[in-house]
Amino acid sequence: MNREEDGTCSLHIEASTNDDDGNYTIMAANPQGRISCSGHLMVQSIPVRGRISTIQPHRTRPRVPEGDKEAVQERFFRPYFLQAPGDMVAHEGRLCRLDCKVSGLPTPELTWLLNGKPVLPDGTHKMLVRETGVHSLLIDPLTQNDAGTYTCLATNKTGQNSFSLELTVVAKEVKKAPMFLEKLQNCGVPEGYPVRLECRVVGMPPPIFFWKKDNETIPSNRDRMSMHQDTTGYVCLLIQPAKKADAGWYTLSAKNEAGIVSCTARLDIYAQWHRQIPQQIKLRPGGSRYSNLTTQGLDIFSTFPTTESPMLFSSPSQKVVESEEL
Prior knowledge:
- The chain is mainly β.
- The longest helix has 4 residues.
- It is elongated, with a radius of gyration of 48 Å.
């Protein structure tokens, strides 16, 4: 075993024998990882050529001893897979390729089996052989019926060899256009208050959202505005605090590979009004009947009797005190 300065590694066998026939693997490793590669060595016997006597002057056919005849030994090799795929996971509707490389003398014939039944070439299944000797089983497009255990048999006159793998087919993604479960609603808030424009949208694959105000796209980094969404389809545009300039028509568009939908709502911003604290009613002194008006509301029925009641005229001498507001 030698290793050169340029990284070349070699394994030398001075006199190979039939025992040296087989698969060889070299592995290189360091703290960051390791790699390996393999190759198959086939040892062939050198044909033994005997001496043939020269032709005699007479025309009689020369007799050549049996031991001096040319003895050519032909050797056969059992199929051996130099390259074979492992278990695979592929997506429905896409191309799937199973590659392998096999050695052997004479050249082996390959047969593919799915769950023990032969895979026959048709419109979606093709068997190819490249110049490099790589055999491929192409499946295009892949369907759920192609899932299962694949076995590749390599056969020649000396015998056969095989490998198996499990192919799992991931179901094709169902595409659904976006759909609103809850649409935007018109709303109005006083200036300076926060406001939420929210709705719920579902679709497959999950849609991408675009917000617009009066047909102009709202950037994600606009001051006082933030956009939110979650995996349940909830979408929200939060404005805090709201200003008069925020009033207008807002549109949310949801788009995926299957389609696009939109909904629009009106946002109104009201000017804030300040509550005025009513001034206390000033009463003239001596108004015993109206003395409690400063602490409780005016009761018309108790303060001003109806015309059917004679109390208003029964005491003409009773003084009526009016407030300055009246």
